[in-house]
Amino acid sequence: MTSTVSPPDVLARIVAHKQLEVAERRALVPPKKLEQSPYLASPTLSLAGYLRRPELSGIIAEFKRRSPSKGWINEFAPVERTTLGYMQAGASALSVLTDTEFFGGKNEDLTTARRFNLCPILRKDFVVDEYQLLEARSIGADAVLLIAAVLEPQQVRRLGEQAKALGLEVLLEVHDRAELERTLDVSLDAVDLVGVNNRDLRDFSVSFDRSLELVELLPAHLGRVAESGLRTAQDIQLLRRAGFEGFLIGETFMRHGRPEKACATLVQQLRDLEPAR
Ligand SMILES: O=C(O)c1ccccc1NCC(=O)[C@H](O)[C@H](O)COP(=O)(O)O
């Protein structure tokens, strides 16, 4: 059973559910068990590093079955064909939504993507507890998302340091200047990339102005990612010219019956638009 929620309380609902879920999972699969995963012994790949590779598109292609704002987007796309196709199309990295209740994903989706792809994989979920970091590492993730809107700056710092100690990179997601400044003030060393979410998770409105206004404020040594609402090669060109290196795209691909073909089309349009890259 999955939930659809109205914008004003979506984040609060997701976080409340996530805290219960984490408590249940910890009881079911204790950290000692997660530590036995073979992935803990394998090195991780750098998402920030892959986004800076000039021969790649900068696209982080997302596997996203449903969302609170759109409901079901693509219930039946197979993980292996879709993610392998994304990478063959020229994506730089993958993002896999593992939340079940609100996004219809699962941990096994990420592990399946891991088995089929040698590229950085972002575990897209709502981290509220350190258990989820070990869990992310144990299922084969290379990077995790920390959302400033749901975490205190000190929590971002603590979780970020713990993630890095596990070998995971940290993508900090912000929506506005206040979130960016108060969080980076205390957690600059605990973060590898900053993502500006063009979708305001409080009302679901999407505007590239959020990315364009904040890009100047993002520290140059951190990876810079524009998230949500990207549809065209022109969108990517605009955001790349503004200073972004990474472009997180979910719905535009997943809306298609064959998401990997939509990704290939967009990458080709981007190559036509930016032949000198
Ligand atoms: O997508 C949503 O409706 C959503 C609602 C509440 C919290 C998070 C949500 N999405 C997660 C994401 O950040 C996006 O999946 C990601 O940025 C890709 O966005 P898009 O290309 O617009 O699918």
Automatic annotation (TrEMBL):
The keyword Lyase applies. PROSITE patterns: IGPS. Pfam families: IGPS. This is Indole-3-glycerol phosphate synthase. Its EC number is 4.1.1.48. Gene3D superfamilies: Aldolase class I. Residues 11-264 form the Indole-3-glycerol phosphate synthase domain. GO terms for biological process: L-tryptophan biosynthetic process. The gene is trpC. Keywords: Amino-acid biosynthesis, Aromatic amino acid biosynthesis, Decarboxylase, Lyase, Tryptophan biosynthesis. InterPro entries: Aldolase_TIM (IPR013785), Indole-3-glycerol_P_synth (IPR045186), Indole-3-glycerol_P_synth_dom (IPR013798), Indole-3-GlycerolPSynthase_CS (IPR001468), RibuloseP-bd_barrel (IPR011060). GO terms for molecular function: indole-3-glycerol-phosphate synthase activity; phosphoribosylanthranilate isomerase activity. Pathway: Amino-acid biosynthesis; L-tryptophan biosynthesis; L-tryptophan from chorismate: step 4/5. It catalyses: 1-(2-carboxyphenylamino)-1-deoxy-D-ribulose 5-phosphate + H(+) = (1S,2R)-1-C-(indol-3-yl)glycerol 3-phosphate + CO2 + H2O. Belongs to the TrpC family. HAMAP family: IGPS_B (MF_00134_B).
